[in-house]
Amino acid sequence: MTSTMSEHTRGMWYGVAAYVIWGVSPLFWNLVDGVPAVDLLLLRVGFALPILAIAITARHLWRSTRSDFATASSRLVTAVAAVLLAMNWGLFLWAVTNGHVVEASLGYFINPLVSVALGVIVLHERLRTAQWVAIGIATVGVIAMALRLGAIPWISLTLAFSFGFYGLLKKSGSAARPLPGLFGELVVLAVPAAVVLVAFREPGNASVDLDAAGLAFMVGTGVITVVPLLLFGASAQRIKLATVGILQYIAPTLQLLVGLTVLDEHLTPDRLLGFVAVWIALAVYTADNVRSGGNQPAMA
Fold it and tell me: Is the pTM of this model over 0.85?
């Protein structure tokens, strides 16, 4: 019993650590001023790849990793997932470095409800009454916010739907396992990243200074990408997925707080309307999820 409790406690701490890192990550991405989101995405891909390779080597997973991509369908799923991941990461990086952290956090609050809706539409999953109520409340809230703002909250919705479809692909029978899958997706992204670096970058024209601090930042882009994912995986192995789902809201909550208190963003009454509706919806959905022992997706 003691060993089980110990593993559960470790799993909780791993999960909390993963979501705290994701939650405060806007602070990291703003450490260096004036770096375009495209460059940050290139750095994230370029420095995450070798870290993932080291992780796969340490776990002796190269043979099974190759087998994960043995079929054409698995390679296609990986390629499409890579595009969605690049869209999600790229927009998130642009948002958090251009004063839109609050809108980005709303996207990750909405994401679990989008995933549930996609499960109904695409996978023909059945929803309980409370889940329908939660989706309805969130939908009405987002529509009301859009009407009051006079504009669609495209940053929030694009982040929510891009990661929702990414999670949907991960449910495919052709999808690779998490660690090999992410490695394969970054290998796919490494090709256009290399083209951009060779064709559109002048030699010596780096957006990050190549001094000690700049090099530490570049390596850090890989670390902040891979470490929380590994922590999340270790957490999911040790605790109930419903518990992992509840921990998920640590990240967007911290992102919201970082945006409001550190990065000097503002939560207008119109945007607050959308947040309140989504929070109520998530409370209904999470309570139902805990009772049923269900699952929620994790962040990338």
Answer: yes
The DSSP result for 182-221, as a single string, is HHHHHHHHHHHHHHHHHHH--TT--SS--SHHHHHHHHHH
Asked if residues 282 and 141 have their Cβ atoms less than 8 Å apart, the reply is: no
239 secondary structure, DSSP code = S
Q: Yes or no: say if 100 and 264 are a contact pair by the CB < 8 Å rule.
A: no
Going from N- to C-terminal start, the domains of the chain cover 2-292
pLDDT tens string 5-16: 578 788 889 989
> How many C-alpha atoms does 274 have within 13 Å on its Cβ side?
27
State how far the Cα of 95 lies from the Cα of 255, in Å rounded to an integer. 11
C-alpha triplet 56, 60, 64: angle, nearest 5°: 80
Q: 115-140 pLDDT, tens per residue?
A: 888 888 888 888 888 888 988 999 89
Q: Give the separation between CA 121 and CA 132, rounded to whole angstroms.
A: 13
Report the alpha-carbon distance of residue 164 to residue 119 in Å, rounded: 10
Whole-number Å distance between alpha carbons of 77 and 175: 6
Amino acid found at 273: L
